[in-house]
Design a protein that fits this description.
Blueprint: H1 2-5, H2 8-18, H3 38-43, H4 55-65, E1 67-68, E2 82-83, E3 95-98, E4 101-107, E5 115-123, E6 127-128, E7 136-146, E8 156-167, E9 173-184, E10 193-195, E11 207-215, E12 219-226, E13 231-232, E14 236-239, E15 251-257, E16 260-261, E17 273-274, E18 277-285, E19 291-292, E20 298-306, E21 309-316, E22 324-329
């Protein structure tokens, strides 16, 4: 990455893309993506290639050869717009509790060497209204991101899927899955940006790959692919929302979240009953080729507090090996 930071031609091009003045170059037919230099990959909207023969390389390769979805019209209608947020944690240590997150987080070993790349895969969970629930709207989001775990986090770039369900008083049920990205920060009131391309929108039990790459002084490159259909979102280079909100990228996380409502920022959606959701994620520290999995991650369980009563909504499987992290629904 060091040589890329000094490549003024590349940086000028990426700044122009982030500002909307230029577009990423198209990946020419017949090009072997495994031979792309880091510069050529970035100019085509792809993170630089991880070391070959690793699990992160396999995910990157699948992302790189996926076909960008075409804008063929409006996507599915929406329920109430949702808004993600930082981890509202109430305890510290290896096993933590949160009012809105469940999953796992790893931290950079050195403050001066933040993460710059993260890639993950999960299967969109099947979901349903809780057996003892009431008519209304339910939602949970599944995503990867940088930061947001610490109270002093200034921003949180993230992308993933949201699973939404609405049940009316007559028992009629509407279910939707949407892809989204967001660069959350405390002053943000707009909520996520949805990718509602109908030929990408992932279905239940389909496998989604998501990737983030931090480009210092410019922004974060984001891209998703559907491993089962081969479709992908357009690559998005999101410029830093405001000065001072550059990602510290000291934490990398995979999360199942119960989001808030944009119109009611203090109210979380109720969480649907969802199938076990397994994340397999990898991250690298800037300037180092080595890739970390979720080994040694801090685990986060989602709880609801009412007075002195604490009810667990969702929790990760507390296994010794955390190459994969599985989050389970607990209110059955």
């Amino acid at each position: 990455m060091a040589e890329l930071v000094q490549d003024q031609e590349l940086l000028a091009f990426l700044r122009s893309v982030a500002a909307g003045r230029e577009r990423f170059l198209k990946l020419e037919n017949g090009v072997d993506v495994d031979t792309l230099s880091p510069k050529d990959a970035l100019m085509r909207g792809l993170p630089p290639r991880p070391v070959g023969g690793t699990p992160s390389f396999e995910l990157w390769h699948a992302l790189a050869i996926s076909s960008t979805a075409k804008d063929v019209g409006p996507g599915p209608s929406t329920i109430s717009a949702h808004r993600t947020g930082y981890n509202r944690s109430s305890s510290k240590g290896h096993l933590q509790t949160s009012r809105n997150w469940s999953g796992a987080v790893i931290s950079s070993p050195y403050r001066g060497q933040p993460f710059d790349f993260m890639i993950g895969i999960w299967k969109v969970p099947d979901f349903r209204a809780p057996a003892h629930g009431v008519a209304g709207e339910y939602a949970c989001s599944t995503w990867i991101g940088f930061d947001g775990h610490r109270r002093n986090s200034r921003s949180l770039p993230q992308l993933g899927t949201v699973q939404e369900i609405e049940e009316d008083v007559a028992g009629n049920v509407t279910k939707r899955v949407r892809a989204w990205w967001q660069w959350w920060h405390p002053a943000d009131t707009t909520g996520p940006n949805y990718d509602d391309f109908s030929d990408f929108c992932p279905g239940i039990k389909e496998r989604v790959i998501a990737a983030l790459f931090v480009i210092p002084t410019i922004g974060v490159l984001m891209k998703m692919a559907n491993l089962d259909t081969g479709a992908a979102t357009k690559s998005v280079l999101v410029a830093t929302p405001k000065p001072g909100l550059e990602p510290r990228a000291l934490d990398a996380e995979c999360v199942l979240e119960r989001p808030k409502r944009v119109q009611h920022p203090f109210t979380n959606f109720m969480t649907p009953d969802f199938d076990d959701t397994t994340f397999r994620c990898y991250a690298s520290v800037r300037g180092e080729p080595a890739i970390r999995d979720m080994q040694g991650a801090r685990l986060i369980r989602m709880v609801h507090r009412q007075g002195s009563q604490v009810e667990t909504i969702a929790t990760p499987d507390p296994v010794q090996s955390r190459e994969a992290v599985t989050v389970s629904y607990c209110l059955n």
